[in-house]
Amino acid sequence: FAGDYKQLPPIISTVDIKEELTKSVFKHLVTNDNCTMLDYTFRMCEPICKFVSELFYDGKVRSIKETCSDKVICKDNLYSFDSPVVLLNVDDCGKQTSDSEAAAITKIIAEYINNYGIDAKEVGVLSPFRAQCANIRRHIRKCLSINEETRKQIIVDTIDKMQGQEREVIIISMTAGDVDYMTEMADFLYSPNKLNVAFS
Per residue of the chain (200 residues), what is the pLDDT tens digit? Predict the structure, then answer.
């Protein structure tokens, strides 16, 4: 068996199920005595790998790709691939949707496509909330600087549905800014498995 129980578990669509059936076969069988960790990744460049490795794998995962892509190099870290992990604070008190985030994301996508030559098929937008995915799609549809054919190629979906896919540019919309709501939804929003999938 090969697997990673630190990524998202199988999707269970019923509530009437035994606890042991909610785990993958891999998670059920793995122990410290019978497991060998595959500690190299071929997908992530070194800075992203280091970020993910330190957060989720005790620093044990290493990248084969030591350098970042040099496809986009500019002075703005938001668009330069030599800064592969960029955190952008969007001030909003949304819960499952945020117009401020959707507008910021649409602007970033338009810049990548129109000014930096990134193919729309290489852009993916993730959110934990389906409502925010729909909101971002609406903003993209209304954006006059992205033509209709290009809009269709931009993938906007939930973190769960995008698991296993990769793109040159990934934008994660965490959406929630309301502190009470974030506290209430902490298990969902800050699930290590979900964040691991999003970041990697």
Answer: 777 888 887 677 777 878 777 777 777 788 888 888 888 888 888 888 888 999 999 999 998 877 666 566 667 777 777 777 888 888 888 899 999 999 999 999 999 999 988 999 999 999 999 999 999 999 999 999 999 999 999 999 999 888 888 888 999 999 888 888 888 988 888 889 899 988 88
25 Cβ contact list (under 8 Å, min separation 6):
1
Contacts of 14 (CB under 8 A, 6+ apart): none
CA–CA gap between residue 31 and residue 117 (Å, rounded): 47
Report the alpha-carbon distance of residue 21 to residue 141 in Å, rounded. Answer: 41
Contact 49, 41 (CB under 8 A): yes
Record the tokens describing residue 197, joined without a space: 């999938």
Q: Tell me the pTM.
A: 0.82
Q: How many CB atoms lie within 10 A of CB 41?
A: 19
Residue 34 is given by DSSP the state: S
Edge-first strand order for the sheet with 155-158 is 155-158, 123-127, 169-172
Helix axes 46-56, 192-199, angle to 10 degrees: 170
**4, two tokens:** 């990673």
Phi, psi for 43 (deg, rounded to 5): -90, -40
Return the C-alpha torsion angle 117, 118, 120, 121, nearest 10: 130
